[in-house]
């Protein structure tokens, strides 16, 4: 359920000391051999996280220390490497971190896409610390970790961060990756062909989100104070008209849900909800939220890619007017965002959740599922499981799978808890895999893919030999 005594949670949440020593070692010899690396030895150091900026080595050290100390709550893995060879670390925080558990949605945060937008990177480290240290004592956080699998990528652009400068509120030093590419303009686009060469960091994220069916995602940025939701781009005919601040929104089929998710973050934030402009030259935002294209259109954004190609509902959070503020300001940003960061992820437990099975009760994997009237398809997991965030109302679910007769089912969503909906498909030889691909791709009417192997999101299996994931 969504409402679990937030008042009690807030009153009990007291900042935990960052100087507590590591307790008696509880890892087995095998676990030590698997996790221990002398380069990152932390056995003789206190565990904690300070309010300062952490470079790549310091961030890696903290993540490894957390993984060692809280090995029952965390799983540390890399989705790939940057151009300069730095790991793109992801920390899973959950009571079942190493494998997907039925009924637990996978959710994620991605920060530091632009290397000089540093606040989100540090907030992710503090969020990890909060989750692992409050589990078992804080009711809301305990419920969240018991019912959700949280993946946190603190830095998608570690190379850019290393050359960024603290105190620089504007400018582009460190914004791009080491090859000079803007990673938030580097994804396939819903409306327009994106011809920019796909970067290693981008490819790693694309493979990551194709492997794990994420339900909800937050992308953390800086330089403004607003929650921005899809679509970020507009049809080709409008691109030439709106080159700077736009006045025309680009509405997605799930606009009501995206607005709700954005408001959830903004209204729980210390000041975002006010919608104040960062400067006279920048716009203000009613209630602290905006449609991305209405603010300014962009091609190749990660937000639209998550939604269109993977059915993951992602919001972009601009967390600070200054892109790289002094470290002394970090406690302020943490206090402004910590409630929002938690409440946003809990929204994954809203809408409809269920399974697609066959007549014998077997899971139907990679079935194409769509809410009627909302032209974005999403896929079932290998367990036949699906999630969709929806507001209260009556809906119809359309389900398609190779070798089965298509099915349409009516269901109702309520406010208090997600609706459980199981759909049974009946076998037939009339519905082929190519029909499923056709159904999925025709819903992407404006799509022009930049990577040939992504032309049909449900067609090709993902090669994961080069990447190590927890079981998904």
Write up this protein.
The protein has 472 residues and is α/β, with parallel strands linked by helices. It has helices at residues 6-12, 29-35, 56-69, 119-134, 139-147, 158-162, 200-211, 236-239, 255-268, 292-295, 302-310, 330-346, 433-442; strands at 74-81, 87-93, 106-111, 149-153, 214-221, 224-229, 289-291, 313-320, 352-358, 368-371, 378-379, 385-388, 393-400, 407-413, 419-425. The chain has an eight-stranded mixed β-sheet with strand order 1-2-4-3-5-8-6-7, sandwiched between helices. A four-stranded antiparallel β-sheet has the order 11-10-13-14, covered by helices on one side. Strands 12-9-15 form a three-stranded mixed β-sheet, with no helix packed on it. Strand 10 (368-371) and strand 11 form a beta hairpin. The longest helix has 17 residues, at 330-346. The protein is globular, with a radius of gyration of 22 Å. The model is unreliable at 1-44, 237-244 and 440-469 (pLDDT under 50). This is Carboxypeptidase M isoform X3. Residues 443-472 are annotated as: Disordered. Its cofactor is Zn(2+). Belongs to the peptidase M14 family.
Concise overview:
The protein has helices at 6-12, 29-35, 56-69, 119-134, 139-147, 158-162, 200-211, 236-239, 255-268, 292-295, 302-310, 330-346, 433-442; strands at 74-81, 87-93, 106-111, 149-153, 214-221, 224-229, 289-291, 313-320, 352-358, 368-371, 378-379, 385-388, 393-400, 407-413, 419-425. The chain is an alpha/beta fold.
